[in-house]
Design a protein that fits this description.
The protein has 139 residues and is an alpha+beta fold. The protein has one helix and ten strands; from the N terminus they run αββββββββββ. The strands form three sheets. A four-stranded antiparallel beta sheet has the order 1-2-10-9, with no helix packed on it. A three-stranded antiparallel beta sheet has the order 3-4-5, with no helix packed on it. A three-stranded antiparallel beta sheet has the order 6-7-8, with no helix packed on it. Strand 9 and strand 10 (135-138) form a beta hairpin. It is globular and about 55 Å long. Bound molecules: FE2/S2 (inorganic) cluster. FE2/S2 (inorganic) cluster is lined by residues 75, 77-78, 80, 99, 101-102, 104, 116-118.
């Protein structure tokens, strides 16, 4: 019984550690089914933030004029992560999402590649919801 209790405690510690590390929490008001990623004010207009999730792997959220868009952090060209520097997902003018490997450009609103080797392909949309509490949740 002692060893089993220790194992459960260790398991809970590891879960809590990663929830704190990746700023992940469950929304108890929704029955624990929705995963809160961050608050809207954590993502200023024309910036982006990455999050590690179990459901989608690494994803990122960006804001454009008060709307939030989330995509898996995988370029459709070579299936590699998009950014070279942490949270740097946008081009120099902060107009498009840009892959740091070969420079492909993607529409912020749709994820469609409009320039580069994966022209016409798209980033994978991650469904999110912005709630009245100001939180952004995985839908
Ligand atoms: S890997 Fe992204 S454009 Fe080539």
């Amino acid at each position: 019984m002692g060893a089993r209790s220790y194992t459960i405690d260790l398991y809970l510690f590891v879960i809590c550690f990663f929830m704190v590390k990746y700023k992940v929490s469950y929304n108890k008001e929704c029955g624990g089914r929705m995963l809160k990623l961050c608050m809207t004010n954590d993502i200023p207009d024309r910036e982006a933030r990455a999050f590690d999730t179990t459901a989608y792997g690494t994803l990122f959220i960006t804001q454009r004029d008060g709307q939030f868009f989330a995509y898996k952090n995988i370029c459709p060209h070579l299936q590699v992560e998009l950014e070279f520097l942490e949270n740097e997902f946008l081009d120099q003018d902060k107009e498009f999402i840009q892959c740091s490997t070969h420079g492909a450009l993607f529409q912020v609103e749709t994820g469609e590649c409009i320039s580069g080797p994966c022209l016409g392909e798209s980033l994978t949309v991650v469904p999110i919801q912005v709630h009245s509490d100001g939180g952004i949740y995985l839908a």
